[in-house]
Amino acid sequence: MLILSTLIQLLILAAVVVAVGRVVRRGRPGRSDATATLRRFFTYGLLASSVGIAAAGVWGLIVRAIEPPLVADDGTTALARSLAFTIVGLPAAFGLLRYTLVRLETDPDESASLAWRFYVSAATAVSLLTTMIAGYLVVGSLFGLEDGGAGAIATLIVGGGVWVMHWLTPLRRHHPPSGIHLMLGSLFGLTALVGGAGVIVERSLDRLYANWFGVELAASDPGDMLARSLIVIVIGATVWAWHWLRPSALEWSQLMWHGWVLIGGVLPGVLVVIGAAASVLFGILVWVLGDRGGETAAAFFDFLPGAVAASLVGATVAWYHHRAHAVAVTARTEAARAYDYLLAAVGLSAVLTGVTTLLVAFFTSISSPAAAGGDSSVNILLAAVVGIAIGAPLWVRYWGRCERHAATDPGAELASTSRRAFVLAVLGISAVVGLISVIVVLFLFLEDALAATLGSSTLYDLRFAVPLVVTAGAGAWYHFSVFRRDQPLRPETAVVALKHVVVVTSNRGALVERLRSVEGFTVDRWEIIGRGSTPAGDPEAVVAAIGDAAGSDVLVMEDPDGAPIVLAYRPN
Amino acid sequence: METTTRITKGSPGRGLVVGGIAVALLIGVTALIAVGRRPVEYPAGSPESTVQAYAQAVINGDEDAAVALLSTDEECDADDLADAYVSDDVRITLRNAEIEGDRAEVEVTVSITSGQGPFDTYEYDQNHRFELERSDGRWLITERPWPWASCWR
Question: By the CB < 8 Å criterion, does B88 face chain A?
């Protein structure tokens, strides 16, 4: 029964994969059919399972081989399982890997397939993360900081082995050209690097603060925490350097590179700095105007080291990535748009939350002054003020920038996915919140009206719903007006010429990059080995020639002087 | 969507096969070591040998032999030990052993495997510390050791 149920689930999943694959590939030139999609689904599913089973088996054997001296042994289950997994999983994994490699080397569609790209991205990411964690435990154990033991060593060997298998074998030639594997590695490495550095800076500042103001009565030795952080920094820096510093930007797609730099680098750094600034501002306002909780200044402001450390680390990360982006890009990319709209969304959320909180306090004060009193209420009001003080400039700056681009270049800005997603998301969320709040307001009003108990208690009951109607309604109304204004100005979706371009070249420069940037072009690059680099020719002339070529499949070659030759062909 | 394809000579999977054979050999050696591992025989009269004899007696269900290795101050008896839960699949490895005069500490990891079949196996480790004292030239266990959580009587 279990097997039947699993089989049915697998078939449903396969049907979904085939359907998704057909939708994704619809309209693309090149070979595509449900059979190939289904084959890839099972092949890569089986490959992932085989690698996982082999890894589990080998892990168990390594643990058993290197574990401490055996005192007593009455267990055979784990050993039997490890042997069974290894004996079956290892040949299956290698057989499937060899089959996959042959397919990748001989069939360009294979390396372009969604299934392969998903598999290789997931395999490299999971094995990398596993290796990083195990590496930390092993190194930590060497210094007596962690209790890694044989399990951590085995995980390091197996996880590292799986990562090496996907990175340092010929499989690396077929890594996704989008660079998603580089992005994931950069993300893991940077997170560890920044996290470790943040802990060291925070602990150091915390210790300085405690010494200066004498707020510390006793403390444990911070040496262990610093040593742990140093290990994390070294591992994170190594991984980050491998995935971010080592490869050239050509190994990333432009969209992924810009997306990572802005959304993965600048945005989190900016948000951390904003959050830290907000906490400092709130603390100062509460100290001056709010409820201090009877604490001394030194104890009250003991959050400052953490806020300063977060600001330093966040600002460094944001500055580094912003600089990289500024050097490489001058035009407004889709990633730059997404960055602006995300920050505008953060600012808008802070403003609307702050205004709602102020309105709740107002309704509370006019309906039940006794309930509105109290020191903690003052602190809530101050939090609302901070939200508005931080959020309003943010929203004005970034939404204003988007509106300026919409005015100067409406074709690109209004048609962008980021703007549509932002406007529709804000409109949708605020409309839903507003409608629910209206229902609640009406219900509470009618309930008291029908019971003939309308009065200040009714107003008190409405203290949350009415402000939500006001703020959500304002948000919905404004963005609905933006949506309606954008509609007629938005250009119709251009008819994109879909071309499958195979470039056989000894040149890795401008031509291929230019072809990649043309919407509708799917570019396979075949590199000629053993021939010196030749001039790229005029990329614009090649783009025009491809556009004029009959049919959707185009071959771009070089004559002996390196001049491009554009040929339309029909695949058999 | 773009791909990069390098035109190469020879079989594309040859390197992988050679590497695979090398890895398989390494794993084969590892498997032989893993299968061939047996409990270490500790010198008679050492704290480790007392713990080893006690653990083996517990695993074998020989409560009387196990209790005979406890200090006479210990309140637990063979009936208590018979009531304690001991998994059918247990492995015990030595973490550390220290002797100070007539007292000693032996730290072990008890690895317990449960479940049925290769895909329903659950394994977890417990660290335990045995405290021993030398009495009449013999090392005896003083504190209530694994697998007891408590004595019921």
Answer: yes
3-class state of residue A453 by DSSP: coil
State the pLDDT at residue A1: 42
Name every chain A residue with its beta carbon within 8 A of the beta carbon of B55: 71-72
pLDDT of residue A401: 93
- Give the pLDDT mean for A4-12: 53
Shortest Cα distance from B2 to chain A (angstroms)? 4
Nearest CA distance, A21 vs chain B (angstrom): 14
| CB–CB contact B88 A98 (8 Å) | no
Q: Give which of A429, A400, A382, A355 is closest to A284, Cα–Cα.
A: A382
Q: What are phi and psi of A428, to 5 degrees?
A: -65, -50
Q: Is the pLDDT of residue A284 over 70?
A: yes
Question: Is residue A258's pLDDT more than 80?
Answer: yes
Q: How confident is the model at residue A21 (pLDDT cuts 50, 70, 90)?
A: low
Element (H, E) at A457: helix A456-461
Per-residue pLDDT band for A30 (boundaries 50, 70, 90) equals very low
CA distance readout (Å), A551 to A410, A452, A557, A558: 32, 77, 17, 20
Looking at residue B74, the DSSP 8-state letter turns out to be -
**Nearest residue of chain B to residue A95 (CA atoms):** B17
Provide the pLDDT for residue A126.
96
Q: Which of A437, A428, A425, A431 is nearest to A344 (CA)?
A: A425
Question: pLDDT tens for residues B29-86?
Answer: 999 999 888 888 898 889 999 999 999 998 888 888 988 888 876 677 788 778 778 8
Q: Does B94 touch chain A (CB under 8 A)?
A: yes
> In chain A, which among 106-135 make CB contacts under 8 A with chain B?
106, 108, 111-112
In what side-by-side order are the strands of the sheet with A553-558?
A564-568, A553-558, A499-505, A521-527, B2-6
Q: Does A27 touch chain B (CB under 8 A)?
A: no
The pLDDT score that the predictor gives to residue A9 is: 57
Q: Is A522 on the interface with B (CB under 8 A)?
A: yes
Q: Are A258 and A329 in contact (CB under 8 A)?
A: yes
Please answer whether residues A379 and A419 qualify as being in contact, where contact means their C-beta atoms are separated by less than 8 angstroms: no
Categorize the per-residue pLDDT at A154 as very low, low, confident or very high, splitting at 50, 70 and 90: very high
Mean pLDDT within A257-284: 92
CB contact under 8 A, B6 and A527: yes
Note whether A527 contacts B: Cβ–Cβ < 8 A. yes
> Smallest Cβ distance to B27: which of A61, A516, A528?
A61
**3-state secondary structure at position A144:** coil
pLDDT digits (tens, 9 = 90+) for A212-237: 887 666 666 677 888 999 999 999 99
Cβ contact B7–A169 (<8 Å): no
Residue A156 CA to chain centroid, in angstroms? Answer: 25
Q: With contacts defined as CB-CB under 8 Å, which chain B residues touch A60?
A: 34
Residue to mutate among A77, A104, A105, with most B CBs inside 10 A, is: A77
Whether ipTM tops 0.85, in short, is no
pLDDT 10s digits, A440-488:
999 999 999 998 888 888 888 888 999 999 999 999 999 999 999 888 7
d(CA A303, CA A187): 27
Which residues on chain B are in Cβ contact (under 8 Å) with A67?
93
Q: Is the pLDDT of residue A248 over 80?
A: no
* Residues facing B100 on adjacent strands: B103
Contacts of A384 (CB under 8 A, 6+ apart): A353, A354, A355, A357, A358, A361
CA distance A261 to A267: 9
Distance CA A192, CA A201 (A): 14
The CA-atom distances, in angstroms, between A153 and each of A127, A142, A166, A319 are 14, 11, 20, 37
User: Given an 8 Å threshold on Cβ–Cβ distance, is A102 in contact with B13?
Assistant: yes
